[in-house]
Every structure is written in C-alpha cells, then in structure tokens.
Amino acid sequence: MSSDCEAAERLARGIPLGEALGTSSAAAWVALDLDVRHLSRRAPGLLPRRAGADGRRLRWDRDCPLPAARRSPTLSQESLLAFALCHPDGRVREAALEQVPGMSALLPLLIVRCADWARPVRDRARTLLSAVPGRELIPLAELVLLMARRTQGAFALEVLDRAVREAPAADIETLLVGKDRATRRFAHRIAIDRGLPSPARLARVAAASDDAALQNLCAEAAIAGMREEARDEVLGPLLTARAPRVRSAGVTALRRAGLHGEARAFLADRSGVVRACARYVLRQDGVDPLPLYRSMCADLRRSMDDGRDPSVTAGPLTAPAAPAGLGECGSRTDAETLWSLLAHPLPAVRVHSVVGLRALDAVDRERLAPLLDDPSSAVVRAATRALLPDAAGFPEDWLRIRTAQDRPRAVRVAARRLLRAAGLHRRSTC
C-alpha cells in the first residue's frame, strides 16, 4: 500500500480511529478524507454501499480485497462510518451523516463534510453541525479554521465564531495558548472584542509572540485599553520587546501616556521604524531630535579618538545606531561626521554609519569600497547594499580578486553580488 493511504489502511486493519490517525491535528483529518479516496481505487470492497429502497441506508461487504495480513475481519461501527463519511460517492456520504449524531469521535469529519462539494451532503452536514453544543466544537477550532480556507468553508467558521463569543472565558483559554497560529489569532480577536484579556496580558503576548499579525493585534488592543494606574505593566513589555513592530507601538504610546521625554532612549534603537517613532513623539513635544543625534555622534567620535575599549557598555557606546538616525533626519552637511565614524572600532557603529550615508544619499564609491574588506561581515553586507547602485564603476579585476577562495565568505559573496549588479555575472567563475 502506498504511503498516501497509510491512515485509511491502519483503520482498515482494525486500529481504532484515534490511533489510526496517529495525531489529533486538523491536517490529519483532512488527510484521512483523501486517504480513503485513494484506498477506494485499490480496495473498493472495503467501502460501504447504499442499500434499501430509498438508498439512504448503508451496507458493508464483509469480503475486503486487502491482503489478509492487512485487514480486520470486523471493523467497529465508528471505523465503518468514518470510511462512509469519506466515500467518493456523495450519496454514501450523505447517508452516513444520518448516523453521526451522538458519535462525538466523528465530529471532525462532520466539520469536513460541511465544506463538501456536493450540496446535499453539505446542507445535511450543516444542519447537524448547527445542533452540536458549542463546547464540543471549540476544541476543534483548528480544523474549522483550516476548512474555512475552502470555497464552502465559511459556514462552520460562523458556527464556531458564535460558540466562542458565547462560551465561558475558561473555554477560550485553551485557544489563546494553543500551538496553531491561526487559532491563536482567531481566539485573541474574539477575546479582545469581549474584553477578556487585560491590557497587561495583551502587552506580554505581543512582546513574546513571533507572529506579526498577533503582535499588531495585541499591542494595539493593549494600548487602547491602557489605564494610567497600570501603564507601566503595559508599556514595560512593549518597550523591551524583541520585535521592532512591538517596540515601535510602545514608543508611540509614550505620547498618549504623556511620557514624551522617555522616547529619547529610543532615538538610537537598532530598528529604523522605532527610531522614526521616537522622533515623532519628541517632535510632538516640541523637541528637535537632530541636535540630539549630532551630540550622540560627537560622543561616538570622541570615544574613538580617546581610544576607549569598544566592549564598554556604558556611555556613548550604548548608542551605536545614532549615525543611522543622524542620516535619517540630518542634512548633507552631516555626511562628514558619518564618514569619520567609519573608522570606529565598534562594528555596529560602522554599519549604522553606512546606513546613515545611504539615507543622506551621500555614498561615495571610492571612499566606501575599503569596507568591502572589513573584518566584520555585517559591515561588508551594509557596504555592499550601499554600493550596488554604483557596481558598474568598479574595476572588474578588482572584484574578481575578491571572489578567490582564500577571501572571507562575506567578501566573496559581496564581490559576486557586485559582479552580478554590473552585468558581469555570466563571466564570473565563482
């Protein structure tokens, strides 16, 4: 038996339905639906047929063409109905639906049939699903959301939506912390509409999540529900979050909280969007960020001239992204400050100085080219991005020398990118 029929074959061998699937994931039920159809081509006698004058009863042939070692002499009613609910013949699927009420183990397949392509099957399944208690449907939210992607999948989602909106808060909790991303988004949207999670909890979810949509949803809701007596519990997680979009939401919320001055700490954030939000908040309070950037960059320059240890974490070295901010809101007269910082011993300062020069449109190929041999791969990548528009101006031999195997990988990659940008990639031997 081919691997695409494994779940259906395990069921045919008499393994209970839950064990045959091997998992409770939504995808497993969809796979079983497909597996049975594949199996029907190899072992049609295994599947039920309609019987009776009205054709609405089911009859099973006991002689199964599967090899003896692979079949069970007697299948449970649950397994037989599972086969019938996935039958290629829509009339068999419709007849099987009549025996589903009261069999909770088959509820996932009832959800699958609500999106059936055959209208009589679909309509009957939807009628039965409407009678299912909401508390039984909520644990199957992942499957409902998966089926909702199909053309006919909206009905079950509407039923689930009503169930979750009316359910006790405790029943929704498992959806809020579940493993499935779509389920967490769905549950949080409804929970927020119902006002269930506190703003502090939403802020923590936004800060801890790796899902951009959930980050936005929870951060916005947390800020909207923030109260002055608990603003630290909301702003704290947002401002210290790893994701830039969450930090930027927290920085913007400083204006609403009347804490404009605290945005200064984020002027030199490693993320450009966070830096932009910090400048916006300060300007709303009448503060021009440009002199602040110039001061930070002057401190970086003095630390370089004084020969301070770049591993020190106090003082100006804690603001290595200040050159990028200077470039984002400065003028061409600030370019020389950024050029001087390209010699800074801290790689992060050199990277952000390149970013600042790009923002000022002050990139000079000859002055920036030495950074393609920088010992820091991050600096090499930043310099490469800045030099790509002027790649045709590089001598071809100069670039090809840097594709040799004895060069650092970052340098080889940079040279190849520039060769491609110059239209010389076909002649490259690397």
Written overview of the protein:
The protein has 430 residues and is mainly alpha-helical. The protein has 4 domains: 1-132, no CATH class; 197-287, no CATH class; 288-304 and 315-362, no CATH class; 368-430, no CATH class. Helix content is 57%, strand content 1%. The protein has helices at residues 6-12, 17-21, 26-42, 77-85, 90-97, 107-113, 119-130, 134-137, 141-147, 154-166, 169-176, 181-193, 199-208, 212-224, 231-239, 244-256, 272-284, 289-305, 322-329, 335-340, 347-359, 365-368, 377-387, 396-401, 409-421; strands at residues 49-51, 57-59. It has a two-stranded antiparallel ribbon. Helix 11 (169-176) runs antiparallel to helix 12. The longest helix has 17 residues, at 26-42.
Give the SSE map:
Blueprint: H1 6-12, H2 17-21, H3 26-42, E1 49-51, E2 57-59, H4 77-85, H5 90-97, H6 107-113, H7 119-130, H8 134-137, H9 141-147, H10 154-166, H11 169-176, H12 181-193, H13 199-208, H14 212-224, H15 231-239, H16 244-256, H17 272-284, H18 289-305, H19 322-329, H20 335-340, H21 347-359, H22 365-368, H23 377-387, H24 396-401, H25 409-421
Antiparallel strand pairs: 1-2
Helix pairs in contact: 1-3, 3-9, 5-7, 6-7, 9-10, 11-12, 12-14, 13-14, 13-15, 14-16, 15-16, 16-17, 18-19, 19-21, 21-23, 23-25
Cα radius of gyration in angstroms: 32 Å
* Helical segment count: 25
Poorly predicted runs: 51-55, 62-71
Approximate strand percentage: under 5%
Structural class: mainly alpha
- Gross morphology is elongated
The count of DSSP E runs of length 2 or more, i.e. the number of strands, is: 2
Brief summary:
The chain is mainly alpha-helical and 430 residues long. Helices cover 57% and strands 1% of the residues. It has four domains: 1-132, no CATH class; 197-287, no CATH class; 288-304 and 315-362, no CATH class; 368-430, no CATH class.
